[in-house]
Design brief:
Elements: H1 4-19, H2 23-35, H3 37-60, H4 62-68, H5 70-93, H6 105-120, H7 123-132, H8 144-175, H9 181-203
Helix pairs in contact: 1-8, 2-3, 2-8, 2-9, 3-6, 3-7, 3-8, 4-7, 5-9
């Protein structure tokens, strides 16, 4: 299905993108610093599911329709941005609450659900997949939608692996400070600010192709 040289280029590009700090990495790092390793891992898998939503939507052509419509793009962008800002404010408000004990699955389940929503409502993710993946599709091989889905799945898997590495790094940094409640409180407040900042950044995003 794939040309060897083209697929090799795709893998190299996808690996570089997965290792490059971006909004997704900052989001899962902030969730880890705020709620611990379990929440960070849950967030990573949640954003992966949200990413797959865009992959399959792109394969079906839905994402192209959204990006072509200023109204649809704007609506999705504002809903996603508002959700991120709300999550950030919520994290700040909960910063003085007791830290959940390790093994408490409630926070992880919530983080997983929120990760799905955050990524699924991010039109910039749709724009990325529609700009990046088609460059490596082989029209002569046919089944363009299937090629798009396979390459998208690989990309999401690599991005998630990169996110999990960041989660363990952030978790290790957090573990050294867990006995200092005031420092943890500041970390959770800072994490909330980062999440809200990502929301504001999304709100200012322009539709691809606009000046």
């Amino acid at each position: 299905m794939f040309n060897t040289w083209s697929f090799s280029l795709f893998m190299m590009a996808a690996l570089v993108i997965a290792a490059t700090p971006g909004p997704g990495i900052f989001y899962v790092a902030a969730r880890t610093l705020s709620g611990g390793r379990d929440e960070g891992i849950a967030s990573s898998f949640g954003t992966a599911i949200g990413g797959l939503v865009h992959v399959f939507a792109g394969a079906l052509g839905v994402s192209a329709i959204i990006l072509a419509s200023a109204q649809l793009f704007g609506a999705l962008k504002l809903v996603g941005a508002a959700y991120l800002v709300w999550l950030g404010i919520k994290t700040i408000c909960e910063s003085r609450m007791a830290i959940p004990e390790q093994g408490d699955s409630t926070g992880a389940v919530r983080a997983f659900r929120q990760g799905i929503v955050v990524e699924a409502l991010n039109p910039k993710t749709a724009a990325f997949f529609l700009a990046f993946i088609p460059q490596f599709i082989e029209p002569a091989a046919g089944h363009a939608a299937l090629q798009f889905a396979v390459l998208g799945l690989i990309s999401v898997t690599l991005n998630t692996a990169g996110d999990i590495v960041v989660v363990f790094m952030a978790s290790a940094a957090r573990a050294g400070l867990v006995r200092k409640p005031h420092v943890i409180q500041r970390l959770r407040q800072g994490s909330g600010l980062i999440i809200s900042g990502l929301g504001l950044s999304l709100a200012l995003a322009r539709r691809p192709g606009t000046p």
